[in-house]
Amino acid sequence: MNTIGLVFSQSIYKELPFNVLKSFTPVVLVAGTPYILVANPSLHIKSVSELIAAAKAKPGKINCASVGIDSPFQMAARLFETLAQVDVTEIPFQGGGPAMLSVMSGQTDITFANLLAAQPLINAGRLKALAVTSSKRSPIMPNIPTMAESGLAGYEFNGWFGIWAPASTPTTIVLDLNRAIVKTLNEADVRSQLEKDGADVLAGSPEDFDRYINSEYTKWNKIIKAANIHVD
Questions:
Q1: Are the C-beta atoms of residues 65 and 103 closer than 8 Å to each other?
Q2: CA distance 224 to 6
Q3: Per-residue pLDDT of the chain in tens (232 residues, 90 and over written 9)
Q4: What values do phi and psi take at 15, rounded to 5?
Q5: 49 three-state secondary structure
Q6: Are 3 and 159 in contact (CB under 8 A)?
Q7: Is the separation of the CB atoms in 223 and 79 below 8 Å?
Q8: More exposed terminus of the chain, fewer Cβ within 10 Å: N or C?
Q9: Residues near 175 by Cβ (< 8 Å), separated by ≥ 6?
Q10: Nearest to 156 by CA among 142, 146, 169
Q11: DSSP conformation letters of 93-152
Q12: Helices in the chain by DSSP H: which ranges?
């Protein structure tokens, strides 16, 4: 099992012992997990459109707490910069928790955070929620708009995780694994727990997952190359 970060790695790292698109056989896309754009309340920014206006007025002035190269946190921010056509200064931290703490303390202005981890801090007024990154609102925070609803057309980012097998795995085994995993994911208690954790259960076919991986690679390879993100 791995995450969206596996797809990022193909574009970021010049030398890998594998090829994400060729070395593995997709088995099943398990679930997607949206992130949430949050700001320090003292910034007095109430929406994504206000954030974009502030970033355009003073390029590089707004800083964003990030979590290292090839993390979903960083890529969510890069997609925002690309579509909004703004220049935001990235400040790296070693983990999502420290990144959120930096925003709460005023050390940084914004961050893209794990929705479930940020929820209690938002409810307590320590972080200002601006938008969720998925294409639809999250059922655990339905009052928070999506990035697209907030005026940033085309923005969609989901952290996701899925299961692969070696490329040489026989098709019959891949299909057996897929059926067994999909059956488990669709059990009421399993689905309920994942949804409580903010995940959107997907559980499609191997072909669905293969198409999704390729579309994600195409999308993120373009963004990563444009942003010149790489590790030699």
A1: yes
A2: 14
A3: 999 989 989 888 888 899 999 999 999 999 998 899 999 999 999 999 999 999 999 999 999 998 877 788 888 998 999 999 999 999 999 888 999 999 999 999 999 998 888 999 999 999 999 999 998 898 888 999 999 999 899 999 988 999 999 999 999 999 999 999 999 999 999 999 998 888 889 999 999 999 999 999 999 998 888 888 887 7
A4: -125, 115
A5: helix
A6: yes
A7: yes
A8: C
A9: 206
A10: 146
A11: -SSHHHHHHHHHHTSSSEEEEEHHHHHHHHHTTSSEEEEESSSS--TTSTTSPBTTTTT-
A12: 5-12, 48-57, 72-84, 96-105, 115-123, 171-185, 188-196, 206-226
**Residue 163, amino acid:** I
Domains of the chain: residue spans and CATH: 2-32+158-226 (3.40.190.150), 35-132 (3.40.190.10)
The whole-angstrom separation of Cα 81 and Cα 100 is 19
Q: Is 170 exposed, middle or buried (0-12, 13-18, 19+ CB in 10 A)?
A: exposed
Closest residue by Cα to residue 129 from 156, 152, 100: 100
